[in-house]
Amino acid sequence: MSIRLRLTLWYSGILAVTLLLFGFGLYLFLSFYIYSDLEKQLNDTWKQTYERKKTVGIPTFRGGYQLKLELDNLDTFSENYFFQLSSLNEEEAPLIHDRSSLLKGYGLSLPISESARQKIVQTDQFIVERLNLTVSNRSVPIILVSKGFNISENGQLISRGVLQVGAPIYYYQNFFNLLQYSLAILALVTVLIAATLGWFLARKALRPIEQVIVATQKIEKGADLDKRIIYDGPEDEIGRLTVTINNMLGRLQLVYSELEEAYRAQRRFVSDASHELRTPLTTIRGNVELLEKMWSKSLTSGQGAPANPEHVEMSIEAMQDIAGEAHRMSRLVNDMLSLARADAGFEMELRPIELKPLVEEVARRALFLPRQAEWIVGDLDVLDGLTVRGNKDYMQQLLFIFIENAFKFTSEGSVRLDALRSREQIGLRIADTGMGMDKEEVPHIFDRFYRADVSRGKTAGTGLGLSIAKWIIDEHGGSIEVITREGEGTTFVIWLPVVFLPSA
Predict the structure, then answer these.
(1) How far apart are CA 246 and CA 219, in angstroms?
(2) I want to staple 410 with a disulfide (CB 3.0 to 4.6 A). Which of 85, 93, 373, 403 is the partner?
(3) What residue spans define the domains of the chain?
(4) Residue 437 near residue 452, CB atoms below 8 Å
(5) Domain 239-343, CATH class in plain words
(6) Within a 10 A sphere around the Cβ of 330, how many other Cβ atoms?
């Protein structure tokens, strides 16, 4: 069952119950009000009629007389009412003394039920009854008010009289029957109209949700996370739902892009690692085959070691190549191990480190690195008394990566190391006057296995150094600033947060 149908049924059901309660309440209120007013009128009429009763004596054959009750001008007041004046005897039927001409004309009398008779005898309260009179074979509903009074002569109680006043109520019953039918038809029509309107209103209200569903299905089928749901309605629940879905799509797009990039990087990493390992392995295998060929020939001929000086020199060069490539493979494997630790969430052990001694030690050891450029150590006084939270070994590795990288790309000129201060951060600056980089290369220099443009000469190295450096900086809560211009050199500034400031 759709939401639209459920909403329509709910609205229609609630409206139907509301109309039912309203109609029932209206019916009860009108019934109570009209019949209460009619009873009040009958009570007032009873009181007026009671004032017009009189007692007369009728002679009997035995020389006495019998009391008889009469009402003066009875027919004048009996146009819309029934009147009957009776007296009660102990176990005998009521004796009717007088009644209105409406009753006389049809030969009718107003009945007194046993329960009403007992109340009349015992109390002086008005007794209200609803009953039916059969007039010309037709049942006529009436409301009847009865009340008893004492019949006395010379202060002596003779009997108990009853005055009954009644009125037909078939007009009222017809009105209430018509009211019932009218309310039922009106409620039915209202519910049908409300259900129809509710159906269309629910459809209109839920149309944006249908648009959201259609748009989401298109995105699902097309697998295009760049698309967004267009909604120009008010900022209601549907508007917030649309914004939430669009934000979710944005996050999914970001995560999907990151996964794609990670997958491409992984494939590129495996490809580059395979290529980097294949080259030294090929070199080692070639040199081993060369040595095997030279030495096996000499050993087979029984000459022992090759006597030819050229062969000896070639053997030494081959062994040097093997050692160099093995060293390169060792560095590559170590670098890959460092990055694998970073990917696995390896956390460095950080502790407060006095920065100046560490930098001075790195500067001293950098003098012995292979280089063609001049090594200049600038002003490091700004580091006096400064402490950073870091790992000493990784901090040294970080500085050596940038220094070796500067030496590698600077065939002539200089490489300079100095320090600068910016509020609560300290910057270690490594600047060279080498070939520099194009601005388009800067965003990629920290990618794994990224190398400088081959058109400017392929440089030695694994292409993992700057990736490791970026990881070390991130672990230390720092940042890296790159300033470069092609043909003029590159400057790297490593910014680290200071955890202890020297006292003034």
Answers:
(1) 11
(2) 373
(3) 52-168, 239-343, 351-500
(4) yes
(5) mainly alpha
(6) 11
